[in-house]
């Protein structure tokens, strides 16, 4: 018997069969170990668990959906994308529809593609504004609203999901920003999912814009509810409200996204809790000192420091050749304050 993970045993016979299958597979890149582990997981399932057929089919369908979606987006890895969420029930010609359409147009002109849920209403407006060539549609199989909107239907960038969880994963994975227009349960589910994932560090911070028409109190009333019921009862941190901005024009929404990437580029972790922040412009000693003082509670050692040499993980990436780097021992909580620090970096 061999242990590939504690508590998960495979017989020598099963291990041999898995390795024999892997040895015959064509590989692109150095991912043989990952494919092997996937097949080991399948072998464990057949060897240890008594799953129903529908449970096995759920696993298969979910994996197939992810592979298909990853494959579609792999062609567009170098393209920045913005997701637009919102109601399917808002009709063409409604002021909220026109606002979403205008934003889609402006953000495309700024160099971004647009991702929507491929349905009617706000989703169609976003695709219409960006145009078919610069749109993605992530549809969902439902008893109603089966087909994608006419802007994106039939395009190679129109993909239909069976499961909501795989679909939401792709929205967050591919987006450099999220714009949420008024909507119902589905839209609020997408908003809360986004906030929860960012709040807990499960996905990177991106700009979140809550967009409604001038004079509308849709997002203002939601924010007041959040303060009254979440913040005052200590259910979320007051700083979590920094994760989103409430805006009332397409131009403001576009500028919020562009300004988020004015100096800040991105971040990633190294080892356990070392947060490496990529910035486009060099920060002088005074600016660095200000950051360390203002945001010391985000760090284990109360210091934000400059990294002089390019980290190894960026050395072979030509897109990162002019990047500057900051480092901190991040406490891995209070992402609302981390968003505030990103805003501060963008002011330098």
Relevant terms:
13 strands, 11 helices, alpha/beta, globular, Rossmann fold, four-stranded antiparallel sheet, seven-stranded parallel sheet
What does this structure look like?
This protein is α/β, with parallel strands linked by helices and 348 residues long. The protein has three domains: 2-50, no CATH class; 81-260, Rossmann fold; 264-347. It is 43% helix and 17% strand. It has eleven helices and 13 strands. The chain has helices at 12-23, 32-48, 53-74, 95-109, 122-130, 164-174, 185-199, 218-231, 250-260, 285-294, 335-347; strands at residues 2-5, 8-10, 81-85, 113-116, 135-140, 158-161, 177-180, 208-211, 244-247, 264-270, 274-279, 305-307, 324-329. The strands form three sheets. Strands 6-5-4-3-7-8-9 form a seven-stranded parallel beta sheet, with helices on both faces. Strands 10-11-13-12 form a four-stranded antiparallel beta sheet, covered by helices on one side. Strand 10 and strand 11 form a beta hairpin. Helix 1 packs antiparallel against helix 2 (32-48), helix 4 packs parallel to helix 5 (122-130) and helix 4 (95-109) runs parallel beside helix 9.
